[in-house]
């Protein structure tokens, strides 16, 4: 707020006073009052007016500057009315009260939609647990009726389970800390467990896997890390070269971290898609070409990695393959920090 704008806002008030003084000035000239008296009356009239305007400008500008500074420093801007003091001038009081009402209404709406989201998430989690019962029953039926057809059905059921697992992790992705337990874990064991889960795909597609260079101990949650790694390895399998596919998993220990790398010789990712690969719902050229991508897997991996304090990046070259790095900080550090 500058003085020019402030005076412009009071143009009508000043104009009326000047018009009234002009009329009185004309009357005083008609009755032959001396110029000195007219000047004295002018000063008596306008000096208090200008003094009041300047005093109000200084007082209001101080408040506006203070509010602006508080707003700039606030991370959560909607808390402004909880911090600022109620102004003393009438316009400020009215605006302050209106902001209070608007802020209260906003909080009520946020709570409403937050409760709706929470209810939906609880429903999804309940549904995921309920759906496991018929899946378990189907697996039992398959175990008792082993043949080539039931083996294929079992394979498809495993895919369904992975999609269900993805739904569960998606619903929990905004509340990782509620389901997160830090433990010391071996990267070798972690990788072997995930490779075992995908063993049928490795065998059926004749994909060779090299795990010899995997070593090291990190701190994290086994369940969440297995999910992230399973998504990465699943993508490597999905876009691998038929009959000549190779996946190499290895670790590199640096001064402050251990980098777990999953490298394949698949079809690769075109350059224009690289920067968007972790965006929600982005399938890219490969997704449109093969029609097997949902655009959720890598998005979830990135989101969970960020919340768990892990680094995740991807490099790729079309026709040569893709390399995904999962970066674990060293030390007994709570990854949620």
Explain what the structure shows:
The protein is α+β, with helices and mostly antiparallel strands. The chain folds into three domains: about 5-105, no CATH class; about 115-170; about 180-330, Histidine kinase-like ATPase, C-terminal domain (Heat Shock Protein 90, 2-Layer Sandwich), CATH 3.30.565. The protein contains twelve helices and seven strands. The chain has helices at about 5-10, 10-30, 35-75, 80-85, 90-145, 150-170, 185-195, 200-205, 220-240, 270-275, 285-290, 295-305, and strands spanning about 185, 210-215, 215-220, 245-255, 255-265, 310-315, 320-330. The chain has a five-stranded mixed beta sheet. Helix 2 packs antiparallel against helix 3 and helix 7 (about 185-195) packs across helix 9 (about 220-240).
């Amino acid at each position: 707020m500058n003085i020019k704008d402030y005076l412009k806002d009071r143009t009508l008030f000043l104009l009326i006073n000047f018009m009234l003084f002009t009329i009185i000035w004309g009357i005083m000239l008609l009755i032959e009052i001396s110029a000195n008296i007219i000047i004295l009356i002018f000063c008596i009239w306008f000096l208090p007016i200008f003094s009041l305007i300047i005093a109000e400008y200084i007082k209001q500008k101080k408040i506006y500057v203070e509010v602006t500074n508080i707003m700039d420093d606030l991370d959560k801007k909607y808390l402004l009315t909880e911090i600022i003091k109620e102004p003393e001038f009438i316009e400020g009081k009215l605006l302050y009260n209106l902001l209070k009402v608007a802020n209260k209404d906003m909080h009520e709406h946020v709570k409403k939609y937050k409760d709706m989201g929470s209810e939906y998430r609880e429903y999804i989690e309940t549904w995921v647990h309920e759906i496991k019962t018929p899946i378990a029953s189907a697996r039992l039926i398959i175990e008792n009726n082993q043949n080539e057809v039931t083996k294929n059905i079992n394979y498809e059921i495993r895919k369904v389970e992975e999609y269900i697992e993805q739904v569960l992790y998606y619903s929990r992705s905004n509340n990782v800390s509620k389901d997160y337990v830090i433990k010391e874990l071996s990267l070798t064991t972690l990788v072997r467990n995930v490779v075992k889960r995908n063993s049928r795909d490795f065998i059926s597609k004749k994909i060779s896997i090299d795990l010899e260079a995997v070593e090291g101990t990190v701190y994290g949650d086994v369940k969440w890390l297995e999910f992230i790694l399973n998504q990465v390895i699943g993508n490597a399998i999905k876009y691998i070269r038929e009959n000549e596919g190779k996946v190499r998993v290895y670790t590199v220990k640096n001064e402050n971290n251990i980098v777990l790398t999953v490298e394949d010789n698949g079809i690769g990712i075109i350059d224009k898609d690289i920067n968007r690969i972790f965006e929600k719902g982005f399938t890219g050229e490969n997704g449109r070409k093969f029609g097997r991508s949902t655009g959720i897997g890598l998005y979830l991996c990135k989101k969970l990695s960020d919340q768990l304090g892990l680094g995740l990046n991807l490099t790729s070259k079309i026709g040569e393959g893709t390399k995904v790095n999962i970066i674990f900080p060293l030390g007994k550090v709570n990854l949620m920090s």
